[in-house]
């Protein structure tokens, strides 16, 4: 992060939260952060974060999220890619695909989408540029069938989002 009044670059600690979208706030646009992001309001636009992203109980997110760890206690409409752990609390809702090394889904939560575990760091980050709407209307020809689940067909699923 560069400070406007100072020519020095300051690297933020990914273990801290430096961005808060508060309850009652509406944000439209892309967020990139070296530290953590917490969302209690509404956001439309992709989120790329070196730290953790937390969507609070009242948070509503219409975006794709790429972060170290992701905690969903509110509603996310979009694809998520957690480099480490994705946690969906009992009040959390995820409508989109997910990629993570570790997954925790509490009883009472909602998850509608596909999941891929392990090797999360190998997934093409360009996948996050597609919207949740694209996922919902994905071409059925690119979705692998349960009968014939080859590696090539599996790869096509991730090319659609």
From TrEMBL:
Highest taxon of source: Bacteria
Protein name (Swiss-Prot/TrEMBL): Protein CcmA, bactofilin family
Bias-annotated ranges (Low complexity): 133-144
Lineage of the species this protein comes from: Bacteria, Bacillati, Bacillota, Bacilli, Bacillales
Protein family: Belongs to the bactofilin family.
Source organism: Paenibacillus barengoltzii J12
Biased composition (Basic and acidic residues): 150-161
UniProt cross-references to PANTHER family, sorted A to Z: HYPOTHETICAL CYTOSOLIC PROTEIN (PTHR35024), POLYMER-FORMING CYTOSKELETAL PROTEIN (PTHR35024:SF4)
Residue segments, region Disordered: 133-161
